[in-house]
Design brief:
The protein has 13 helices and no strands. By secondary structure, the chain is mainly alpha-helical. Helix 1 packs antiparallel against helix 3, helix 4 (87-108) runs antiparallel to helix 7 and helix 4 (87-108) crosses helix 8 (189-210). The chain starts with 13 loop residues before the first helix and ends in a 14-residue tail after the last helix.
């Protein structure tokens, strides 16, 4: 039995316990005031100056069952890992699993919320340790493994059937990342280095997929979600233009037209920004494209509006 720390000392599991409390508090806020957590969830803004979204998206939860399931397994696996490896390493593992699962989910589908990706990652880590390290053989029993795998498949089936919307990619990415970390922990020499490189590759692929390659890898195939990304970019560009950040506006409008190349307003506003930057030839090309798409304000007889 684990004993509480002596008076005046830090709690035995500051990372695991703190994460549980944060998840409960943020979820309660999200239920009461959804707009209060908007800047925590994973969106494209994570790559536009708000990188914390890659981690803080694990805190809000959709409902009570979602929250209770996740914090229970976080406590089961997290306390053991934190006791064995210390608070700092536990914090690094949580951040790594959060970033990989959140980025992978956003890259292939859309932003998700909750600790499920981290939970599956900790499960994967503990499962590999239990199989490879005799001292950790009792970490994960057969019934727990079966339950996690059945739940993984069930969530996919229910999502495909339209009954639930579950971040299945986050589950899978977290599980893979956690398993590789577990392999690294229980290996030495070249195998440990190879596992570390695999984690780095998975992290890099997830971040690239969620940012510059998202339009190519997202399973929506350029549909509603991609158009929403372009809309968000154009809104951010509008704001940049209004505060006279012309260079920023040009960059954001260009990203928007790369995602959606049939919206005349994006090309028109790109032309306005280029015109303000005294890039006349490119501005005229953008206006011409907007006019060809039906944006009458960009046609020669209308002239560029500013």
């Amino acid at each position: 039995m684990r004993r509480p720390p002596p008076p005046g000392q830090l709690p035995a599991f500051p990372v695991t316990g703190g994460l549980v409390l944060l998840a409960i508090a943020v979820t309660a806020l999200a239920w009461k005031q959804p707009e209060g957590v908007e800047r925590l969830v994973m969106t494209r803004d994570a790559f536009r100056g708000e990188p914390w979204r890659l981690v803080t998206g694990i805190l809000p939860h959709a409902d009570a069952f979602h929250l209770l399931f996740n914090v229970y397994w976080l406590w089961v696996f997290g306390t053991e890992i934190e006791q064995r490896f210390g608070a700092l390493r536990m914090a690094l593992v949580v951040v790594l699993l959060a970033v990989i699962s959140s980025a992978a989910q956003y890259a292939l589908v859309d932003g998700g919320v909750g600790l499920s990706g981290v939970g599956y990652g900790l499960f994967g880590l503990a499962w590999v340790r239990a199989r490879r390290d005799p001292r950790s053989a009792d970490l994960v029993d057969r019934s727990t493994v079966v339950m996690f795998l059945i739940w993984f498949v069930l969530c996919i089936v229910l999502t495909a059937a339209g009954a639930w919307r579950v971040a299945n990619v986050a589950h899978g990415a977290g599980l893979i990342a956690g398993a590789i970390v577990g392999f690294a922990i229980t290996s030495v020499g070249a195998r440990r280095a190879l596992a570390g490189a695999a984690v780095g590759a998975l992290l890099g692929a997830s971040l690239l997929g969620a940012s510059v390659l998202r339009h190519a890898v997202n399973l929506d195939g350029g549909g509603i979600d991609q158009r929403m990304d372009a809309y968000e970019l154009a809104e951010a560009a509008d704001q940049a233009l209004n505060r006279n950040d012309t260079a920023g506006a040009i960059r954001l409008y260009r990203e928007a037209v790369e995602l959606v190349d049939d919206e005349p307003s994006y090309f028109h506003n790109l032309g306005v920004a280029l015109y303000r930057a005294d890039q006349q030839a490119e501005a005229l090309a953008a206006f011409a494209r907007a006019c060809a798409l039906g944006g009458t304000a960009s046609c020669p007889d209308a002239g560029p509006s500013q």
